[in-house]
Design brief:
This protein has 18 helices and 29 strands. By secondary structure, the chain is α/β, with parallel strands linked by helices. The strands form five sheets. Strands 1, 2, 3, 4, 5, 14, 15, 16 and 17 form a nine-stranded mixed beta sheet that branches. Strands 18, 19, 20, 21, 22, 23, 24, 25 and 29 form a nine-stranded mixed beta sheet that branches. A five-stranded parallel beta sheet has the order 6-7-8-9-10. GO terms for molecular function: adenine deaminase activity. It comes from Cytobacillus horneckiae.
Length: 581
């Protein structure tokens, strides 16, 4: 068991791989006459590709001596590229790591490097690590990050992000990086524990992912000195230039709240940046409906349309990522010894594959999804439905805060003075102010305030989906907020809308109240239905799912509602503490 975790292939397997070349064993799959991207020569070349199990055992002119039981595919007319790599996945945006991996594979993204935030916050370490182990058995390749902070003010942060926990995560074989560093202001203010963890990460030859929106050139330089390697927060050409100048790898983003890629490419080209080896792509945890058009394949397509040379565009989604993470001996190219993750394209200008091979198995063939991601027994890993053992009372529904939070966009909230009467059971429809409550999922505490800018005609919404897994209530009607809460409780977690006493929209989230166990394709329909409903009720921003997620996220300005109370991000102070129930 220990050996299996320590080495990808046992000695016995490696001997078998060599036996295929010796003509004693047949390959399991032979791709003949394949026009493929060879990154050693940076050219399209033609070869025969032999695959045995999950590994490419030979690429070249020769054909195997033995082919009994071997599947032989003539690749005439197709173009082959390596499986794409998403270096910065947040696989918990209502979908779950398993369903997102299965969905992404249909678009050729067969390797994902995933945020561990939900696992660190919601599961004990032993369960989290058994989940990581289970994720090794799916056709996609799943790697992970190790977070150093909760991205919000949580109670008992020092136990969740204890030295022992961080060290165990960092040492885990499936963890490729530390970060993302949302808590970098603390780091610059002298947080030596975080600096120590960064030192440990570097000692293990692992990377550190930044999260440095708006950082000045000097700040970027300081963070590079402290150990950061890459950042995905550049929102214009100059910010890309500054990051490159300070030695960063730059992750170009195209996400549901920051669909920046076309602009980034235009502006960097205007600045004369035309060397692409320091660039990688990320969709940065987009909501499912945004992923309808594709994942990394769509970003490669945009890059090609924006004049990036075709091979460079593919490299940004493959070999550049593998080299950055020091895993190019396994990923990112079609060459002997690599894991057999290969995309078969009809045309090099269309990066969405017609067929996909992941770990040597077909997951998509001739446009058909082969559905070979087996269902998971989620409860074995601690992902059971939310079990809420308490009720909301009329006492909970008291809103007497002197100021509330006002939405500037999908995710930024500012303070504002409340001028309306909040003592009634319903608020008027002539303004866009709603009651807002964050309440502990165990029912121990709550924060009540008013939210401006979310909707002007919403009766009641309850959501167990949030940054910390605590419960959010929003609405004009206290009665409908309570009704939505009751239905959410029945479902075992979810996002529920109640109107005039009736449930009118719901997305069940059966996994800890945070994730759906549905396929992403089905979730897209649910999410679109909720978005249309909320837009009709006055929601005017891009992504309500991210709005719910980020209400308590202290890596964003200005006022956040957290487990410790109303929090002023800039001054790092709790303005109003949570009320104990």
């Amino acid at each position: 068991m220990v050996l299996e975790q320590r080495y990808r292939w046992k000695n016995k397997h490696l001997r078998e791989h060599v036996s295929v070349l010796n003509g004693k064993l047949s390959p399991t799959l032979l791709l003949k006459n394949a026009r493929y991207l060879n990154q050693a020569f940076k050219k399209w070349m033609t070869a025969n590709i032999w695959i045995f199990g999950d590994r490419i055992v030979y690429v070249g002119d020769k054909l195997p001596d033995k082919t009994d039981g071997c599947e032989i595919v003539d690749c005439e007319g197709l173009t082959l590229v390596p499986g794409y790599i998403e270096p910065h996945a947040h696989p918990f945006q209502l979908y779950n790591p398993h369903s997102f991996a299965s969905y992404a594979a249909q678009f050729g993204t067969t390797t994902l490097i995933n945020d561990n935030m939900v696992l660190a916050l919601q599961l004990e370490k032993k369960k989290a690590f058994s989940f990581l182990k289970e994720m090794r058995n799916i056709p996609s390749t799943m790697y992970w990050w190790c977070r150093f902070d909760a991205q919000t003010e949580i109670q008992n942060e020092e136990t969740t992000f204890s030295h022992g926990n961080i060290k165990s995560w960092l040492e885990h074989d499936a963890v490729l990086q530390g970060g993302e560093l949302t808590g970098w202001p603390k780091l610059l203010d002298g947080d030596d524990m975080m600096l120590h963890w960064m030192q440990e990460t570097k000692r293990m030859r692992k990377q550190i992912e930044g999260h440095f929106p708006g950082a000045s050139e000097k700040t970027l330089a300081k963070l590079m000195l402290l150990g950061a390697d890459c950042d995905h927060e550049a929102i214009n050409g100059q910010e890309i230039y500054n990051r490159l100048m300070q030695g960063y790898t730059v992750s170009l983003r195209y996400s549901s709240i920051r669909p920046d890629l076309p602009l980034l490419l235009d502006e960097m080209h205007e600045l004369g940046i035309d060397h692409y080896d320091q660039f990688i792509f990320t969709t940065d945890g987009s909501s499912s409906s945004f992923s309808e058009q594709g994942i990394i394949d769509h970003m490669i397509r945009i890059a090609i349309e924006k004049g990036v040379p075709i091979i460079d565009a593919y490299n940004m989604g493959t070999i550049n990522v593998a080299k950055y993470y020091n895993v190019q001996y396994l990923h990112g190219n079609i060459a002997t010894g690599r894991i057999a993750n290969i995309n078969l394209l009809e045309d090099e200008k269309n990066p969405t594959p017609v067929s996909v091979i992941a770990k040597g198995k077909w997951v998509k063939k001739d446009g058909v999804n082969l559905n070979n991601y087996d269902e998971l027994a989620w409860e074995n890993f601690g992902f059971e439905p939310l079990d809420i053992q308490w009720d909301l009372t009329s006492h909970d529904m008291q809103f007497s805060m002197p100021f509330g939070i006002k939405m500037e966009n999908s995710v930024i909230t500012k303070p504002y003075s409340i001028a309306i009467d909040v003592s009634n059971d319903e608020l008027g429809r002539e303004h866009d102010e709603c009651f807002f409550m964050l309440i502990d999922r165990k029912g121990k505490w709550r924060v009540n305030t008013v939210l401006k800018g979310f909707a002007d005609d919403l009766d009641g919404l309850a959501s167990s989906y949030s940054n910390t897994g605590d419960i959010i209530l929003i609405g004009k009607s206290k009665e409908d907020m309570q009704n939505a809460f009751r239905r959410m409780k029945e479902l075992g977690g979810g996002i529920v809308v109640s109107e005039k006493g009736k449930v009118v929209n719901e997305i069940p989230l059966k996994l800890k109240g945070i994730m759906s166990n549905k396929k992403v394709e089905d979730l897209i329909k649910d999410e679109k239905s909720l978005l249309h409903y909320l837009k009709d009720k006055g929601y005017k921003f891009a992504d309500p799912i991210y709005t719910l997620l980020f209400f308590s996220s202290t890596h964003l300005p200005y006022i956040r509602v957290t487990q410790r109370g109303m929090y002023d991000v800039m001054n790092k102070t709790v303005l109003f503490p949570t009320m104990m129930r």
